[in-house]
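Hi F.,

I've been meaning to write this up properly since the lab meeting, where we talked about keeping a consistent format for the predictions we share between groups. The idea is simple: the sequence comes first, exactly as it goes in, then the structure tokens exactly as they come out, then a line or two of notes. No screenshots and no reformatting. I'm using this chain as the first example so we have something concrete to point to.
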Amino acid sequence: MIFDIVSKNGFSLDRLATLCAVVEARSIVAAAGPNSSRQSQFSRQIKELEDVLEQKLFDRVGKSLRPTDAGVQLARMTKAFLDGISALQLREQVNLRP
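Output, unedited:
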């Protein structure tokens, strides 16, 4: 079942990282910075995740976004996963030092 979701077009670690950035920054503009093409990319990635998961991740109120409970939960799980990968990578780098 999990492989059905992660193998779908539109689901990727990049999109999940974008979700985390938008949740943390509380807006696409703040997460993407002044680059309008990056803002469009982030917006598209969020929409693609919502489509793949068949779950609303943000409530859109005018131009602002408020993460839904599902959006917050997914962002927390993703952040924990990405933090774990970073810790593993750091541990490996420490072990390789002479």
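Notes:
DSSP finds five helices and two strands in the chain.
Helices lie at 2-6, 13-25, 28-32, 36-53, 69-96.

If this format works for you, I'll send the rest the same way.

G.
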